[in-house]
Every structure is written in C-alpha cells, then in structure tokens.
Amino acid sequence: MEVDNYIASGILELYVAGLLTEEENLEVHQNALQYPEIKNEIMAIEAAILELTQAIVPTYADRKGFDDVKVRIGERKDTKVVQMTRDEKSNLSSYIAWAAAILFGAGLVWFYVQNDQLKTNIEMVNQQNGVLEQQILDARGSLTETEALLSSLRDKNVSVTSLGGQEVSPDSYAKAYWNKEQNKVLIDAQGLPEPPDGMVYQVWSLKLDPLTPTSVGLLEDFDADENKVFTLNNPNESEAFAISLEPAGGSEGPTMEQIYTLGAVTSS
Amino acid sequence: MDLDELVLRFQKKDVIAFEKLYEMYWENICGVINTVVKDKFLAEEIAQDVFIKIWNKSDSYSPSKGRFFTWILNVARNAAIDKVRSKSFKDQQKNLSADFFVGILDRAETSDQPNNTQIDTSALKKLVLNLKDKCLQIIEMLYFRGYTQKEASHELDIPLGTVKTRNRSCISKLRENITLEWK
C-alpha cells in the first residue's frame, strides 16, 4: 500500500469529517493502526479542525460549564438539592404545621381556662347580683317602712311627747308619737339601753290626777328591732307616758324604781 | 493519560474522564453549533445537550467507527441542524443559509465591530489567511454541516472527485497557517 498516495487522496480529511461509510471508516482505522504516518496525518487533520473550530467559539455571556452537565446526568446531587429544598420545604411546612397545631391546642386550653374563669366570674357576679337585689329589696322595704313611719309621724293628729330619763337611768330618753284619731302610739325607744336578759320595757299611759297607770304594751324583741320604733294601741286618754323595765311578760303595774323615762303629754 | 484511555474510561461512565473530554472539546463543539444556529446562547444550550447525549449513548461509540471528536462532531451537527429545521426556530425567522463561515470575515471587516458575529475574529483571520472562499465553503459544508461529498459537489457545482481533493488542499492550507502561527 502506498501510504503517501493514500494520504494524498483526501480520504483522511473525510474520515475526520465523519463522511465515510462504515466500511471505509473501519478500513482507515485499521490502516491507522498499521501505519503510524496515517495515524499522525489523521491527528494533524483533526488538530487543524480543532484549531479552526476553536477560533469560531462565540464570545460567551454565560457558561454553564460541566457542573450543569453533571447535574443533568445525575452525577452531581444538585438535582437532588432541588428535592432537598423540597424536603426542607416540607420539613419547614411540617414544623409550621406542628407549631400551628401546638399553638392551636394551647389556644384551646387557654380559651377553656378563660371560659371557665369567666363562668366562675359570672356565677360570682350573679351571686353578688342576688345579694345586691336582696339589699335593694330590703332597702326598698325599709324605705317603705321609713316612709310609712315618717308619714305616720307627720300626721297632724300626732302629738309628740318627750320622755326624759329618770333616777334609775338619767341618760335615757324616748319619744311618744300619739295619734289620738287612730288610737295608736309610736314609741321611739332609741334612747333606751338594751334590756337585761329576762327583762322587757313596758309602756304605760298615765292619768295624773289621781295617778293611774294603764299598760299600753311591751317593747318586745327590743334587741332585734333595728329602728327601735314600736307601734302600740293606745285607746286611753293619756296625760303622760312612762316606760319601765319589767320582768318578761310585763307587770300589772309599773315598778316605780324601774321607770326609765317619763313625760307628760302637752295638750295641743 | 492518552485520549484512547480517556475515552475508554468515559465509556465506563467515569465522570472525571468525561469532564476532561468536555473541557477538551466543549469550545470546538459550541463553535461548530454556532456556525449553524448563529445564536451564541442557543449554541451553548445545544452544546450542553450534546454532551448529555454522548454521555447517555457512550456505548454506541467505537474507535473502529472513527475518531472520538468526529463522533461528537457528528452528534453536534445533527443536533444543531435539527434545531434550525425545527418549527420554533423557523418561526424566529433565523437565517438558514450555509454561509456563516464564508461571510464571517467580510462581515467583521465591513462593520468594524469584531463582536457582531458573536466571535472574536482575530484568531480566525490568522487561521484562514489566504484561504479562498471556496475553501471556507467546502470546509463549512463538510465539517460543520455534514454535507455528503455528493451534496457538496452538487452545491458547489464541481465534480464529485474534486470535493475530496479540494478539501484536502484547503485543510492543508489551514495546517500551514497553524504551523506558521506556531513558529
């Protein structure tokens, strides 16, 4: 084989261009293995083409480089980095979900506690309301009583008698509001000391000439009475009133030494 | 490590060998593709695709079928040509004519803008010094476009046998220029 002619034919240039048939390629390949000149010629032609193609490389703005290829052939784990970001994302979202769940749970507990407390508060307030309502009712009742009392005292038919303290209790005093029309007498006993156990105050209507005491009534439950005003029936033609301390249940006649207060009715 | 061993390791899915081959040939491949698609970003994209492709079908290469570079060159040409024939590419009304290489120097000279063709033409000028247009044409057709001898003879209106010899003399001139540059 004439190597020079073979080289000069231009077949090797076509070989490098990849334009030969499969058989021709195989033939050149085998010749190249056999003849170093042929192999060198092929290398030189390839080098020229490489040089030429090297010279027409575009000027690049962005070269992705081999890393991009690596990623795409799956040799670099950058593709999985995307998945990992996804994982991180899902981790993050699961963290968020857990955090949200915990917050939600804590929120529920908080609401429950708050609700319970509010219920308790409401109960307390209701109770207080009850108490207040009772107080209001009581106040209204006492107001009514007071008004009734006041109106009965203001009645034009009422004569007021001051009862001054006597020897046994000089500081004591009382007032008698006597409504002759209604035959009632209101005794304001605020100025009397509390009676000892087993004793009771007894109110007397007195006629002065001759001195005749008539029992008007007892100031029962003296301790318990708040305003110490007692209403008694008095049909008598009273000229004076006296209050004496008597054994429980009262006496037929007043114990003279135990008269606490005494006052004459001023004729109006 | 010589090229044969590198290719062998590449075929055994050695990524390091692949990276070396990539570094060796990426610019050449990208340059070839750019002459076809005339869009440097697209050229780069296709070049990346070409390397993915050769990795995936590395089994199909055999030294008995030709040079390793020739094999990649073939894959790159096909990819680039497929692209310019695609509808999306045609829709962009890209210039499909096969005169990139021939006109590249003229365009650079007339416009006074070395980068308007997206390449640095100074190296190219030295390389193709004294190469006539018919040389540039035949090189572009055979190496960058993958024309068969028959297609080239028809296109250039020359006898079939002349394609081979003319190409031989044109490549020889190119080699001379390279040798001159090295001196």
UniProtKB/TrEMBL annotation, chain A:
Name the InterPro entries on file: Anti-sigma-K/W_factor, RskA_C
Keywords attached to this Swiss-Prot or TrEMBL record, sorted alphabetically, are: Membrane, Transmembrane, Transmembrane helix
* Transmembrane stretches, start-end: 92-113
Which Pfam families does UniProt cross-reference here?
Answer: RskA_C
Q: Under the GO molecular function aspect, what terms does this record hold?
A: sigma factor antagonist activity
Any idea where the Anti-sigma K factor RskA C-terminal domain is? 97-255
Q: Biological process (GO) annotations?
A: regulation of translation
Q: What is this protein called?
A: Anti-sigma K factor RskA C-terminal domain-containing protein
- Please report the organism this UniProt entry assigns to the protein: marine sediment metagenome
Automatic annotation (TrEMBL), chain B:
Looking up PROSITE patterns in the UniProt record yields: SIGMA70_ECF
User: Which intervals hold domain RNA polymerase sigma-70 region?
Assistant: 21-88, 131-176
Keyword entries, A-Z: DNA-binding, Sigma factor, Transcription, Transcription regulation
What InterPro entries does its record include? RNA_pol_sigma-70-like, RNA_pol_sigma-70_dom, RNA_pol_sigma70_ECF_CS, RNA_pol_sigma70_r2, RNA_pol_sigma70_r4, RNA_pol_sigma_r2, RNA_pol_sigma_r3/r4-like, WH-like_DNA-bd_sf
**Record has DNA-binding as a keyword:** yes
Q: Name one Pfam family in it.
A: Sigma70_r4
Question: A GO biological process this protein is involved in?
Answer: DNA-templated transcription initiation
- MF-aspect GO terms: DNA binding; sigma factor activity
Give a yes or no for keyword Transcription regulation in this entry. yes
The record, for NCBIfam families, names: sigma70-ECF
| PANTHER family noted in UniProt | RNA POLYMERASE ECF-TYPE SIGMA FACTO, RNA POLYMERASE SIGMA FACTOR SIGZ
Q: Which family does it belong to?
A: Belongs to the sigma-70 factor family. ECF subfamily.
Protein name, UniProt field: RNA polymerase sigma factor
